[in-house]
Design goal:
single chain, alpha/beta, Maf protein, five-stranded mixed beta sheet
Length: 208
């Protein structure tokens, strides 16, 4: 996706948040503030964007966003648990309606067993308690590409969250089992009793 497309996505997100009176904060690690930059590039974004946290180190994640040290030590900086904690931390510290968090390995170094270059965890948290998480594996496509694709994914996730909770899916009601209607049978007319006609007895031959 080109830069112009990213700007269009940012503009659409800002318009939606403005219409719904939503404010946004970002918490970024591997993208280093690129999501906030994409949003604030659009004139008039200050009525939606509140602030951005750039928490590149574990110490910054803990000090600025309140990510527990135990979470970082147990799951690592690049994990679902850390991304979710970052999103909730930004939500609370900025007092906004929506917050997005990004943590990943942009490369070319930084890979560890089970966590390759291009792995990015993103989370979006809403004030009403909704949370969304995406794990993206962009691969070794280059540092700039990983960061750019992460920004696009973050904007899309914010857009989805800004639209509000989805109405519950109504399951089709199972048709009630109705017994087949009984067909009333017309009673058969009883056949009239046939009269037995007495046959004339045949005279028996006399013995001679």
């Amino acid at each position: 996706m080109s830069g112009s497309a990213t700007r269009a996505l940012s503009r659409s997100l800002l318009d939606l948040c403005r219409m719904r009176k939503l404010t946004v904060a970002t918490a970024e690690s591997c993208t280093g503030g690129l999501v906030a930059a994409a949003l604030t590039e659009i004139p008039g974004s200050s009525d939606v964007v509140d602030r951005g946290f750039i928490t590149y180190s574990n110490e910054a994640k803990h000090a600025m966003l309140g990510v527990a040290t135990a979470t970082l030590e147990t799951f690592g900086a690049v994990s679902k648990e850390t991304a979710v904690a970052m999103a909730f931390g930004a939500l609370e510290n900025a007092d906004v309606d929506l917050a997005v968090a990004i943590t990943g390995i942009a490369g070319p170094g930084g890979a560890t067993p089970g966590k390759s270059v291009g792995l990015v965890h993103l989370a979006v948290a809403a004030r009403d308690g909704r949370i969304a998480h995406h794990e993206c594996r962009f691969g070794a496509v280059g540092r700039a590409n990983v960061r750019e694709q992460s920004v696009i994914e973050a904007l899309k996730m914010l857009m989805e969250m800004a639209r509000g909770p989805k109405p519950p899916v109504k399951r089709p009601r199972a048709a009630a089992h109705r017994p087949h209607p009984r067909v009333s049978r017309t009673p058969r007319r009883s056949a009239g009793k046939r009269r037995r006609t007495s046959r004339p007895s045949t005279p028996r031959a006399s013995d001679s």
